[in-house]
Amino acid sequence: QQPVQSPQAVILREGEDAVINCSSSKALYSVHWYRQKHGEAPVFLMILLKGGEQKGHEKISASFNEKKQQSSLYLTASQLSYSGTYFCGRTGTGGGADGLTFGKGTHLIIQP
Amino acid sequence: DAGVIQSPRHEVTEMGQEVTLRCKPISGHNSLFWYRQTMMRGLELLIYFNNNVPIDDSGMPEDRFSAKMPNASFSTLKIQPSEPRDSAVYFCASTQVGYGYTFGSGTRLTVV
To answer: Please, are residues B34 and B91 in contact by the beta-carbon 8 Å criterion?
Structure first.
């Protein structure tokens, strides 16, 4: 069963912040986040394992609440280069050795 | 590292023809995944291999689809016979357990 992402789309001005949510009705072992630009392959952003830790680099970070079976991606002071479609993917057990089931994606448009 | 290499980049074929998509994973990655992406269904996991062994092919839509991984550096996805509804972008991805996926550039398949 696919994780559910919200919102489906968001339009921001450069410098604004965004939050993308991902929830699952099935138990989460780990959550992955990817960004895909039009006509390109998805690119790995980060992985979060059980434990609720927050990870990030630069101005993109994420949290994982295993009790609520939710993860959120935070984009701070967005840049034009952040535009694209963001996907969360969940694994059941196996920590990634089993295939990721992806959500339908969140389209992010950053305007100057 | 050259990344995950897929061929061909584009394939146009007539309905009923056999189509073979190829993938070379990153050296040292022990898991390989085949995904299909369409506007309607998003990113769908078709099949994945761990250490060259097929683990779960429940995502393969029909018996017309088959996949092999004869060694650690090569995998194929075959569609025989192809149908117009198979038109999509097919991605191959590889990883090590606990790490993010690296996707290939994809094969855009058009069946006319």
So the answer is: yes
Asked if A47's CB is within 8 angstroms of B97's CB, the reply is no
Structure letter (DSSP) for residue B81: S
Chain A residues touching residue B53 (CB < 8 angstroms): none
How do residues B27-43 score in pLDDT, each as one tens digit? 999 999 999 999 999 99
Best probe of the A interface among B90, B97, B101, by most A CBs < 10 A, is: B101
Kindly report whether the peptide bond that precedes residue A3 is cis, defined as omega within 30 degrees of 0.
Answer: no
The answer to whether the Cβ–Cβ distance between A94 and B106 falls below 8 Å is no
From B43, B56, B98, residue closest to A102, measured CB to CB: B43
Phi and psi based region of residue A39 (left: phi greater than 0; alpha: psi -120 to 50; beta: remaining): left
User: Rounded CA gap, A37 and B107, in Å?
Assistant: 16
Rounded Cα–Cα distance for residues A1 and B5 (Å): 29
What is residue A76's predicted lDDT score, i.e. its pLDDT? Answer: 92
Q: What gap in Å lies between CA A40 and CA B66, rounded to an integer?
A: 25
User: pLDDT digit string (tens) for A59-108?
Assistant: 899 988 888 889 999 999 999 999 999 999 998 665 556 789 999 999 99
Number of other CB atoms surrounding residue A40 within 10 Å: 12
